[in-house]
Amino acid sequence: MVEGTTLEMWRTGNCTVGSNPTLSAEFYTGFMRILYRIGAGAIFLSHFALGIFFLTAWMFPTIRWFYLPLLVSWPACWIFLGYCPLTRAEFELRRKTGASVGAKEEFIQHYVKRFFGITLPPKSAFSWGLAVFALLFALSIATAIPR
User: Fold this and answer.
1) Residue span of the structural domain in which 75 resides
2) Are 67 and 57 in contact (CB under 8 A)?
3) Measured at the alpha carbon of residue 136, what is the angle toward residues 60 and 106, in degrees to the nearest 5?
4) Structural domains of the chain, count
5) Is residue 140 part of a domain?
6) Among 51, 68, 115, 146, which residue has the fewest nearby CB atoms (within 10 Å)?
7) What is the rounded CA–CA span in Å between residue 31 and residue 64?
8) Nearest to 29 by CA among 89, 88, 96, 94
9) pLDDT score at 1
10) 38 alpha carbon, distance to own chain's centre
11) Per-residue model confidence as pLDDT tens digits over 4-56
């Protein structure tokens, strides 16, 4: 390790929090970036799990009372807010870590481009989202009808 660097100073005990204003600011900035990254990752996992829940929960009639209102809230956010709150929160935290995230990108657009290199036009993501919502809503209602 290079002598005199922040990491070396912390490792050897030659520095404490608050004794060096520059070190404290660097430590705080690095620590906050870690927290932002953890928060963004937690939101990503929650968002992904919610998507899987939307795609599969119609098969379980016992949770329909919880599923249908949550399913309806999905396009309602897009229609009334113009964005998904989970996407906005995750991308804001990612920006604070220095990651480049498109200002008007949606969750699916961003991760399809990131993992598969395919750029989806904004209107197609919204249109596909509404089509998937309509299909899932229809499946939920169809499976609720007694035979």
Assistant:
1) 20-144
2) yes
3) 120
4) 1
5) yes
6) 146
7) 42
8) 96
9) 47
10) 11
11) 555 555 555 555 555 555 557 777 788 888 999 999 999 999 999 998 999 89
